[in-house]
Each structure stands twice: as structure tokens, then as C-alpha cells.
Amino acid sequence: MVAGNRPRRGGREDADSIAMRVPAARAGSSMKLEIQWEGDAHEIEHHWFRLPELSTLETAQVAGEEFVLKRVPLPSAPRLGYHEIRLYWMQEPELECFARARFIVCPKQALAPQGRMAGVALSLYGLRSKRNWVSATSPISSV
User: Fold this and answer.
1) Cα 30 from chain centroid (whole Å)
2) Helix, strand, or coil here: 85?
3) Across the strands, what pairs with 64?
């Protein structure tokens, strides 16, 4: 599954859909999209779709089996964070889970720092201890 306005990897807060490949033999089925939002294990959002009503982006043959790429709409405002998505075939009398994925929604653009910034960087190979070649009398040996 890929998220976005067009098929691509990752998800952004402005993404309006995910692309999903399904066997062409199941393209007439109905499915359920379930999103478990990060932070609250009990907050699950449910959406039901009939695959023939979803737009087809492309078709492909893999090992002699035909697949279709469908665009599955997302809720109007996906929340930033690490979420869980599950897709189910609507099979009476129960649901059959056919896909599960981590759904990561990130900002469209990283926050730009304001003003000047400073920090400390230390390369791991620059780290010294009494056990390595630095002499015990060296000022850096106390690190």
C-alpha cells in the first residue's frame, strides 16, 4: 500500500488516498478499511468500500495472475503519527483480514528552525577511554 495524491511511498498529512493491489478475481468484492489511531488502542475508525466503485490506477500480471491497483480514499484529515491499517474482505458471516500495515503520517514539510542553532557533535571514533591507546595521563582519558 502506498499513500498520497498519486502512488508513492510513505504518507503525508495531506494524503487523500492509499493505493492497494488486489487480485483481479476479487475486484468485484467489498472491503473494509480499519485504522487504529496511535495513542488510543480503543480508537478504531471503520470505512467500507465496494471495489468496483473505486478508481483503478493500473493492472499488472504477476506469475500468471492479474492484479489491479485501486485508489482507496482516506479520512479527510489523517493524524500525524504511527498508526495501524487493516484491510478485510467482506465475507459473510465474518471478515477475512487480507492486509495489515503500519501507516505512518508525517508533516508535508519539516519544521524550519528559527534563528541560529548550535549543538554538540561527537564522532564515535573520537570517543576515548582508559582501555584504548590514549595514555592515562592524557586530559581526554577521563571521558
Assistant:
1) 23
2) strand
3) none
> Distance between CA 59 and CA 65 in Å, rounded?
11
pLDDT one-digit tens code per residue, 22-75: 999 988 899 999 999 888 777 899 999 999 999 999 999 989 999 999 999 887
Query: Which residue reads 498520497 in cell numbers?
Result: 4
Q: Which three cell numbers stand for residue 109?
A: 514539510
Show the domains of the chain with their CATH numbers: 2-106 (2.60.40)
3 state SS of 95: strand
The total number of residues shown for the chain amounts to 143
The answer to whether 80 and 104 have CB atoms below 8 angstroms apart is no
User: Residue 8: how many CB atoms within 10 A of its CB?
Assistant: 12
Residues 6+ apart with CB under 8 A from 17: 3, 4, 5, 71, 72, 73, 74
Q: How far is 57 from 141, CA to CA, in rounded Å?
A: 62
Task: Identify whether the C-beta of residue 56 lies closer than 8 Å to the C-beta of residue 68.
Answer: yes
